[in-house]
Amino acid sequence: LVAATGTMDTVANIAFVIATQLEILPVVAVITALSPGPTVILGRIFGHEHLTALRIAGLILAIASAAFMSI
What pTM did the predictor assign? Predict the structure, then answer.
């Protein structure tokens, strides 16, 4: 699991560098804004963490910010 996490992080960083070189920063900014979402969802699924009102509000704000950045 640790090796897979490190590999995915490396791939994400490489993809970010390539995207910035290709000058598609608006797309990268939207995707980066949503990055807290999978962390919370995976924590709920695999870590059996509770979805508190604060975490749900954070997810909603992340989705809303991504929507506003795409306008």
Answer: 0.56
